[in-house]
Design brief:
Elements: E1 2-5, E2 12-14, H1 15-21, E3 30-32, H2 41-45, H3 49-61, H4 67-77, E4 84-88, E5 91-95, H5 105-119, E6 125-130, H6 134-143, E7 149-156, H7 162-168, E8 175-180, H8 184-196, H9 198-204, E9 206-208, H10 214-229, H11 233-237, E10 239-244, H12 249-259, E11 266-271, H13 276-283, H14 307-317, E12 325-328, H15 331-343, H16 350-362, E13 368-373, H17 381-388, H18 396-402, E14 409-411, H19 415-423
The structure holds pyridoxal-5'-phosphate.
């Protein structure tokens, strides 16, 4: 598999290099030079998740990793299902929260850990990542206990849910977590600065593990196929997929699935009040506002990292950005949507509720709608209980961590301090 840096297309790397490096020169994102096309989609859809994913990722990654090895990586990563649930007459939910940290980021995080453990060189590796909530948990759990890999996770202090925090800041061992006194964009900026610091990068073997790492995106492609596999051929004819979006990795993966030949009529990018992309699609102007805190905090991103990849895919496929649907909900609208969904018999959480609402407003006659449920409702227990006036039992995976003490360090958004911390 060959990839190029979107900012500097002459910088070209292999899959292994891209996984190790994360970002290219000038913080450019790596992107596959070619994406194959499947002509036997129905045959592919008839396979079970793991076997099908082995074929998809095998085709994307090519012979750079021996088939046996790649197959084992996928088997180790995809150890949980992604069921589709019916929510309304022509609307379905793809539940991506049945993994160990109850969020869709388990798919990407676990595959990324496997990929890195496979392509690593000798010497120390430090995973440095910023999280707005769920990436951190997925990364921490995916790498926990792996030998010679250190993990440092930055997150905006007080801006993620207490349960989210418990899930990844209680592990210890090779996982260090840092509460930054600033917002998520500032955490992300610190990570970028660290990657620009060549000495630091070499000394501690810096590697990123958030949604910019290409291995995460490739893994996520697989669950779009898994969703289609659970729908009838007729439903797949006019399939519209709504993706709750923050950094836009999830949507990028869906667009790669479509490029591979999966029949998806169109996508809808659904956001909260951090609506840079919906406004951009409407006005043609890219004008991020300051990030605001919302109920769907994993999408509190006003400068989505993966957007250049979305544009690259549209350009390369000759698609027009006007074909991309979008919509944004504020918190009041999110609450209304969550209640409406619950009244219909489906318990969701704020991120999925946004995707559902925007979808149901834009779905046209004859279309089948699918929205992605990116987290288990219990991960947003406080909000869900308050909005729906119900009590949610904690799933065991969360309850276990909830009882443990937080082990996080605290720091201002100061690169000099972070640098010293990383070298310690
Ligand atoms: C990360 C996350 C999102 C946003 O996904 P992106 O790939 O960053 O667009 C949505 N919902 C939840 C629950 C998340 O954790």
């Amino acid at each position: 598999m060959n990839l190029y840096n979107i900012k500097h297309p002459t910088e070209q790397v292999s899959f292994a290099q891209a996984v190790r490096q994360g970002l290219g020169k000038d913080q450019g994102l790596f992107f596959p030079e070619t994406i194959p096309q499947f002509h036997n989609i129905d045959e592919l859809l008839a396979l079970p998740l793991v076997e099908r994913s082995q074929k998809i990722l095998g085709a994307l990654i090519g012979d750079e990793i021996p088939t046996d090895k790649l197959n084992a990586m996928i088997e180790n990563a995809f150890t949980f299902p992604a069921p589709v649930a019916k929510v309304a007459d022509n609307i379905y939910a793809l539940e991506l929260f049945h993994g160990p940290t109850l969020a869709f980021k388990d798919f990407g995080g676990r595959f990324m850990a496997q990929a890195l453990a496979t392509v690593r060189k000798d010497g120390k590796i430090t995973i440095l990542t910023a999280t707005s909530g769920d990436t951190g948990a997925a990364v921490a759990h995916a790498f926990y206990g792996l030998e010679n890999i250190e993990v440092v996770i930055l997150y905006p202090k007080g801006k993620i849910s207490p349960l989210q925090e418990k899930l990844f800041c209680t592990l210890g061992g090779n996982i260090r977590t840092v509460a930054i006194n600033a917002d998520f964009d500032a955490c992300q900026a610190l990570v970028k600065q660290a990657f620009d610091d060549e000495t630091l990068r070499q000394t501690i073997g810096l590697n990123s593990a958030n949604s910019i790492n290409i291995s995460r995106l490739l893994a996520q492609v697989c669950y779009y196929f898994e969703a289609a596999a659970q729908l009838t051929a007729e439903q797949r004819q006019n399939l519209v997929v709504s993706v709750p979006s923050g950094n836009f990795g999830n949507l990028t993966a869906g667009l790669i699935a479509k490029t591979l030949g999966l029949p998806i009529k169109r996508f809808i990018a659904s956001t909260n009040a951090n609506d840079t992309v919906p406004r951009y699609l409407q006005t043609g102007e890219w004008s991020p506002n300051a990030t605001v805190a919302t109920l769907s905090n994993a999408m509190d991103v006003s400068r989505p990292n993966n957007w250049p990849r979305v544009e690259e895919l549209f350009k390369r496929n000759g698609w027009n950005l006007s074909e991309l649907g979008s919509g944004a909900l504020n918190d009041a609208q999110t609450e209304t949507a969550l209640k409406a969904q619950y009244a219909q018999g489906y318990l969701c959480e704020p991120h999925g509720a946004i995707a559902y609402q925007v979808l149901s407003e834009q779905l046209q006659a004859g279309e089948t709608g699918l929205f992605l449920c990116t987290a288990h409702p219990a991960k947003f227990k406080e909000s869900v209980e308050r909005i729906l006036d119900i009590e949610l039992p904690l799933p065991e995976a969360l309850d276990k961590h909830n009882k443990l003490p937080l082990l996080s360090d605290e720091m201002d958004a100061d690169f000099v301090a972070l640098r010293a911390y990383l070298l310690k």
